[in-house]
Design brief:
With about 450 residues, the chain is an alpha+beta fold. Helices cover about 30% and strands about 20% of the residues. It has 13 helices and 19 strands. The strands form 4 sheets. Strands 3, 4, 5, 6, 7 and 8 form a 6-stranded antiparallel sheet that branches. It has a 6-stranded mixed sheet with strand order 10-11-12-15-16-19, with helices on one face. Strands 1, 13, 14, 17 and 18 form a 5-stranded antiparallel sheet that branches. A hairpin with a 7-residue loop joins β13 and β14. α3 runs antiparallel to α4 and α10 runs parallel beside α11. The N and C termini lie far apart (about 55 Å).
Length: about 450
């Protein structure tokens, strides 16, 4: 079906003038799928028999075309056929689980940029305040910084269109764009007159790792997400600490609010703190999703006890890291039960330049625990005050519609271990240092 649709790009006009042609293409494609199932054909990615009782019938295909025709003929506004077809594809994936989705070419490109730890824009963090767009933070050296913008500035116009009276999310999106493109901003510094600036967008490196010393003995890293260089950034920072002659007695890694990202980066970081053993395994229907990741000898900070801070927004790859270090007794996990996103999403490109994000497996910690809808239970319970006063409760994976069920726990492949470094963990002193730094 994908090949049929992408090969008809040059026939758009004929499709629109012949009302039933696109219906015929859809029906023929679906019929081919049904016929293939009827003949017992499978793709390389399917690893179990087709459920014949759930196959499409001709009546099912006719129902689809009936709905398609009714929508295109009778909907209150004219909707083109491609929009309807895209909506059908999106609806199919959205009904599977909260994390499977259709990615138009632009969204796929943005997802790829996020995995590289970058985005194309002007380098500001904005938020809505009293119906206005206010600059919350500026990235040093960014186009916005070079244009003289500062935190507290209020953006009043974007490319000649006033912000007031418009949906603010729509206006905020206009700050993004292709690298090399220009955006004209009118902004008002606090207590001053409006200024205008023509700013050229460029790729902005997302600052996802920060470090500070809590005192002379305890170090603190904040990791906000995992992208392609996260592990290298952390390893280089640790090497820099060593080269400065700083003798750490304990290290805190803050994963609060970290939604995850690139799995292999979390695995590499776990490997950096483990000498051996399993880090995480994935299991799915497809044989290629039966994976195990194991640690190799050598540690970044051998013998230095670790504490991992988590909250209800700590999700996915962050939970993999916390679960691996907890099961091996390499770190104390402090905070709240984590989000519980224990599913793997594979990004699969399509021929038309778009892609799909499809849930293909579940994560399991070294002891065999499933993270899905369960999360990681901390060793030290701390209830955090919300940083966002507008946050509505503590939503976790289990609260989302159509979330994957918690799978029955398999037989444990390993037992939770105890690392000698944790026996001397200065818990009270580290917590006091975190409080003094206003991080607790």
């Amino acid at each position: 079906m994908a090949a049929t649709m992408t090969q008809t790009d040059g026939q758009t006009h004929r499709m629109k003038t012949n009302g039933n042609r696109i219906i015929f293409v859809i029906l023929a494609s679906l019929a081919c799928i049904a016929t293939a199932h009827g003949q017992g054909e499978t793709t390389q990615e399917v690893s179990e028999p087709v459920n014949r009782s759930a196959q499409l019938t001709l009546d099912d295909l006719r129902t689809f075309t009936d709905v398609f025709n009714q929508a295109r003929k009778n909907y209150v506004e004219i909707v083109d056929d491609k929009t309807l077809l895209d909506a059908a594809i999106k609806g199919m994936l959205m009904e599977l689980d909260p994390h499977s989705s259709y990615l138009p070419a632009k969204d796929l490109e943005e997802l790829n940029d996020a995995s590289l730890g970058r985005y194309s824009g002007i380098g500001i963090d904005v938020h809505a305040v009293d119906g206005r767009i206010e600059v919350k933070a500026i990235i040093n050296g960014s186009p916005a910084d070079m244009a003289g913008m500062n935190p507290g500035d209020v953006i009043t116009s974007i490319d000649g269109r006033a912000v007031k009276g418009r949906p603010l999310p729509e206006a905020m999106d206009e700050l993004l764009g292709e690298p090399g493109s220009e955006v004209v901003l009118v902004f008002m510094p606090p207590g001053e007159k409006e200024r205008e600036a023509i700013i050229t967008r460029e790729y902005i490196k997302l600052p996802t790792l920060t470090f500070e010393m809590l005192d002379e003995a305890y170090g603190y890293f904040k990791l906000t997400q995992f992208h392609q260089s996260s592990a290298a950034d952390l390893e280089n920072s640790i090497a820099s600490i060593k080269s400065d002659g700083i003798a750490l007695q304990a290290l805190v890694i803050d994963l609060r609010g970290n939604p995850g990202g690139v799995l292999r980066q979390a695995v590499t970081i776990a490997d950096g703190f483990l000498e051996s053993g399993n880090i995480v395994s994935t299991r799915g229907r497809n044989a290629t999703m039966q994976l195990e990741f194991n640690a190799e000898p050598g540690q970044w900070l051998a013998g230095i006890p670790l504490m991992i801070l988590v909250d209800h927004r700590t999700a996915s790859a962050s939970e993999v890291l916390a679960g691996a270090l907890q099961d091996h007794g390499r770190a104390l996990i402090a905070g709240e039960r984590t989000f519980g996103k224990g599913s793997v999403q594979s990004v699969l490109p399509l021929r038309n330049g778009a892609g799909i994000k499809l849930t293909t497996a579940r994560y399991y910690t070294p002891s065999g625990r499933s993270i899905q809808a369960e999360g990681i239970e901390p060793d030290v319970l701390i209830e955090w005050e919300s940083e966002d006063p507008e946050e509505d409760g503590q939503v976790r994976e289990i609260d989302l519609e159509r979330h994957l069920d918690t799978e029955a726990q398999p037989e444990m492949t390993a037992t939770r271990q105890s690392d000698d470094s944790l026996e001397a963990f200065p818990l009270d002193q580290v917590l006091d240092a975190l409080r003094a730094a206003k991080l607790l």
